Amino acid sequence: MKIIQVIPTYNEAQNIPVLIRALFSHGIPNHHILIVDDNSPDGTGQVAESLASDYDGRLSVLHRQGKKGLGKAYIQGFRYALDQGADVIGMMDADLSHPPDQFPVLLDALDRADVAIGSRYCPGGSVDREWPAWRKGLSWFGNAYARTILGLPIRDATGAYRLWRRSALEAIPFEGSRSNGYVFVVELAYLATLAGLSFAEVPIYFAERTKGDSKMSLRIQIEAAFRVWQLRGIYKKKSSG
Ligand SMILES: Nc1nc2c(ncn2[C@@H]2O[C@H](COP(=O)(O)OP(=O)(O)O)[C@@H](O)[C@H]2O)c(=O)[nH]1
Ligand SMILES: [Mg+2]
Q1: Which atom of ligand 1 is nearest to the CA of 44?
Q2: What's the rounded Cα separation, in Å, for the pair 24 and 77?
Q3: If you compute the radius of gyration of the chain from its CA atoms, what whole number of angstroms results?
Q4: Could you read off the pLDDT of 44-87 as tens digits, one per residue?
Q5: In the structure, which protein residues have their CB atom closer than 6 angstroms to any atom of ligand 1?
Q6: Smallest Cα–Cα separation from 79: which of 142, 193, 173?
Q7: What share of the chain is helix, strand, coil (3-state, %, to 5)?
């Protein structure tokens, strides 16, 4: 079984060596990592290249010309993974907020569902205990907003720590997505729901990054707030017409 974990990066040079080592430390056979870097000014792409020789062909890097958004990075990464014959395709943030030690648990969950989700909002899951109340509230609200408007059957619809069976990813038209930022992650969950796929959620503790800066911006949040309604409209129209 070939696993390709797609990890989009923008200025994560300090994080990816730690992350890659932690993921490969599980010794899972045929486990590959694909870094999709948007020409990070801090040299993340080069750092990833320089590590590749340590992992004999199991670490690859896709270089994109510039910062073109998370959605597009995942689309390109997924296409690559499918073309390379992956049986399992992963998603993950590069900043260590998604605990790499939970990776085997996530992989086991794929035995009982089409999509496994590392979840902050299922029983046992949580967000950084140092976050101020407003931050926790905003994260919770954003997630509840998307779930409710789109009628998603999962507790964590906005988190990107996921594993897909190949058949699951092939069942959804992910390449047609116009979402740029984090709302891409929500769109995928919606497409998966419409396709009747099954989910398994595994609790995670989401720790705030300690290195580098968040790429979250007001623009990306506004895109998400509007886009969720737009998605509902687009797919409703398609299904009724
Ligand atoms: N390739 C690529 N990666 C991105 C882009 N924007 C964010 N990322 C990556 O997406 C992941 C999540 O971003 P992050 O800034 O941690 O978001 P936050 O956790 O919501 O603050 C990280 O691995 C980022 O490096 C982008 O435009 N292109
Ligand atoms: Mg982050």
Answers
A1: 25
A2: 19
A3: 17
A4: 999 999 999 999 899 999 999 999 999 999 999 999 999 999 99
A5: 8-10, 12, 36-38, 67, 69-70, 73, 93-95, 97, 209, 214-216
A6: 173
A7: 45, 15, 40
Cα(163)–Cα(160) distance, integer angstroms: 9
- Of ligand 1's atoms, which has the minimum distance to the CA of residue 97? 19
pLDDT tens by residue, 6-44: 999 999 999 999 999 999 999 999 999 999 999 999 999
217 vs 194, residue with greater confidence: 194
For residues 168-205, one letter each, b for 16 or more C-beta atoms within 10 angstroms of the residue's C-beta and e for the rest, the string is bbebbebeebebbbbbbbbbbbbbbbbeebebbbbbbb
Q: In angstroms, what is the span from residue 52 Cα to ligand 1's centroid?
A: 21
pTM of the model: 0.97
User: For 120-149, what is each residue's pLDDT tens digit?
Assistant: 999 999 999 999 999 999 999 999 999 999
**Residue reference for tokens 């396709």:** 195
